[in-house]
Amino acid sequence: MTPADNLPSSPLPRGSTLQEELAYYKAQYEQLEAELQDFQASSRELEAELEKDVEASEKRERQLKEKVEGLGFEVDEWKTKYKQAKSEANAAQNTLQKEITTLRDTNRTFQLRLRDIEVANDDFERQARNTTSSLEDLESKYNVSIERGVMLEEEIKVGEQEREALRIETQRLRDELSDLKIEAEITQGKLRLAEATIGRHHDRKPQPLATQHLRNRSQASEASGTTTSSPAIATPPPSKSASSTVSDMTTPPSPPSSEASAGVKVVPSTPLRLKRLSIAPDSKTIDVNLSQQSSAYPGWAAESPTISITPKPTSTRGPS
């Protein structure tokens, strides 16, 4: 501890001596000098520290300036990039806006088309249902037609068999008709021969007794002919084909006028007469009776032919 530290810090009292004043001021001087040295030492230390701080600050300032310059370049670069990105974004936004507008229009068009397609689909479904119902009706009608066709085929087969039987029966009847025509021609020949014989007998001069006998017989024959000339059974007129066929077979030709003598009295005789013609559709029986009456020659009635046509019964079943 220095002597200055031992000095009182109070001021110098009044009435002190010179020695006391000198010691007092000396102590003050030493104290101030020590304080000055301490202050200088601390100032040097503080100056060194401040210099170090200044150097560090300058160094940091230089670093920060360099960093600021680098960041300025980066800022300029980012500004350029920002401007470029903004222009690109604006272009992309415009493009996307156009695409969105186009897509909206396309979507609206597709929605309208979808609605039309749905309407058309509903129409198609309705047509499909109608077509299905029509197809089912056609199938049922087709099945009915097939069944009807099978039944008609069976009926056609039965009809073919019946037609074949009728054809055979018709051929048989044609053969019988040919035979009957031949018999009719033979009968007509006999009739012509008989008429020629009658004509020759008329050409001859009759005996008085024979003449009287012939007159009596002729009167009797006229009476009987008048009585029997009326039809026995009232039947409807036959068809044209049957009557024409029978008349062609039974009507004899008239004798030639050259064979008859003008001066000789011809005894009237009953011509050939269709006595009965009956056609029964159930039995299909045709009976033709031909009779000739002659008052002059009663034996001729025995030679008159009787034609009877009786075909065999056939099936009368018609097509079902």
UniProtKB/TrEMBL annotation:
Indicate, by first and last residue, each region the UniProt record lists as having compositional bias (Low complexity). 223-233, 240-261, 304-320
Instruction: For the region Disordered, give the residue spans.
Output: 196-270, 296-320
Task: Please tell me one Gene Ontology term that the record gives under cellular component.
Answer: kinetochore
- Using the UniProt record, give the first listed, main subcellular location: cytoplasm
Q: Where in the cell is it found?
A: Cytoplasm, Cytoskeleton
Q: Which GO BP terms apply?
A: centrosome localization; chromosome segregation; establishment of mitotic spindle orientation; microtubule nucleation; vesicle transport along microtubule
- The coiled-coil segments of this chain are 15-190
User: What keywords does the record list, in alphabetical order?
Assistant: Coiled coil, Cytoplasm, Cytoskeleton, Microtubule
Gene Ontology molecular function terms on file: microtubule binding
The record's annotation in InterPro entries points to: NUDE (IPR033494), NUDE_dom (IPR006964)
Q: Which residues form the NUDE domain?
A: 134-276
UniProt keyword annotation of Cell division present: no
Q: Which Gene3D superfamilies match?
A: 6.10.250.1080
Q: Family, per the entry?
A: Belongs to the nudE family.
Q: What is this protein called?
A: Nuclear distribution protein nudE 1
Native source organism of the sequence = Cryomyces minteri
